[in-house]
Fold this protein.
Amino acid sequence: MTIADPKAPRADQADLDKAADRPEDADQWTAKIRTAAVEALPPQRMLPDRQPAYVASWIYVFGVATIAALGVVIVTGFVLAVMGPNWWHVSSTGLFVNSLHLWAVEVFMFAMVIHLWGKFFMAAWRGKRKATWISGVVVFLTSVGAAFTGYLSQQNYDSQWISTQAKDGINSTGAGAIFNVTNFGQMIMWHIVLLPLIVVALVGLHVLMVRLRGVVTPFAAKNETPGVEPGATTGAEVEA
Amino acid sequence: MSADTHKKPRKFVQDRDALAWHGAYEPYDLAKEFLIALLVVVILVTGLAVLFGSPDDKPVTVRSWSTANPVDFAQTAITELDGTSGTAGYGPPYNLNGDAQSIGPISPAKWLGVHHPIDTANDYVLGPLGTLPNSPEVQAAVSEYRAASATQQAAWTSAYEKAVANATFTDGKLVVPPGDYGPVGTIVSALTDMARSGSLDGALLASRQFYGTDYTKPLLFIADGQYLANLASNDHLAGDQWGMMNETGQWPGQAWLWLYTLWYQVPPANNSTNGDIEVFAFMIGLTTLLALVPFIPGLRSVPRWTRIYRLIWRNHYREVEGRSGGGGTSGSPPQVESSAPEPEPVTV
């Protein structure tokens, strides 16, 4: 009796691996996308196991903490969505899950703001990282919107007050024509479907950008590259 | 001449470009860091949830409002009938009875017009009363009011609005000083009774469809009264109490809205009829600046000027500056991680 090696690839899968990535298929769109993706983000860059020595500060933890908190926000929000919008008003378990959701949002926003200001004071947009910075700002703004619609979807006094006050600001911009903060049904759809999708997609894009460019290097030290000041020339060539 | 001959050394701008790293790489276990962060966040969030929970104050209904403060309800109802309430004179997107906010000629709400039409007299007062069964006296009052001229209606409502300021609520009935109010007294008293019974809540919601989720009409009606605002003021939620970033009780609210809320506390927004659009315009400007910091000379230099980066990278600088000859990022000349797609000509 022969016992198959559980770690060995399945025979059909192994055949496919051998058959794939042939030179004659290089013009395929799929092949081009795969090639470009692997070239841009090879596994070592996508999930590096080493970082430059300067990546040694507590400030770097807040980016990861933001993603971790976002995970808790999504899981607790998922439970609230499964049980429906009335559940947490009538169940002590539901109220506890709502509490987890609320505090996860507070931690998420706190960690993200620290992360954002940390990156600001590192001038983390340097070296082709402008899009990474902008995507981070957009994530922050979208998250503010996601949290705001969450407050509007509570179905309690707080959401009543917030919606009747916020309507004036939203209406003044004209957005009130299509984004009606006093419409509970519309707000909860934005809160549990549209904005989470956008936040998660943008966070994913943001992380890919970080991995693509790596962590920004420090400003020059006192004894490094003397004479490098704004406006000075270094003779350095532009990297395409 | 080929394109390559035009490729010139570019200016290195510290706040735009980054030096390439040629120093050491240390082990850094991202997956482990994430799992530890997740564990810490879960413990922190669970601890906070156990210790502090979350608020869930019951919503105000038309019934609870009219029961707790029937005089305020009646005073609000007459303003809905005569078109002097906040909602009645709001303007777009609810009606055309008021001017939309603007900055100079810019008035997006006016441009977009009415999208959630509300006619307060019909939607909040006359319409719901028309659904009352077995109420010939009330229906006659509604018919009389509808049939009267606008001038007559205004005379009745004006007189009643002054009188209801001194109204009381005694033995389950609204008591208004006597006067010539035509059918208005009957209308407002009947609406108050309807509200206190709870049927007005249903009438305001059921006007559109069975499975309604749009609470615009009852919410704006409730917000037109003083009751909701008084509750908010007692709970430090009013606009001039930084209310937009506060939460009921002592729970932290949307603290990240602090800058947005700030502008409502100071001139010109705190005493401007266009305060909301002014604050929004200002915040849109500030947010755009934040997003575009990398492109703005001067602003993008703030991190270097403040030198907080030296605290963040203190170990790196201690090591590099503690030895002669520079360290990881240095090189002579340095390699530039360019941030600009096109080279700039060198100006010497």
In short: Residues 169 and 175 of chain A are 9 Å apart (CA to CA). Chain A touches chain B through 108 residues (CB under 8 Å). Chain A is about 65% helix and 0% strand. The longest helix of chain A spans residues 92-121.
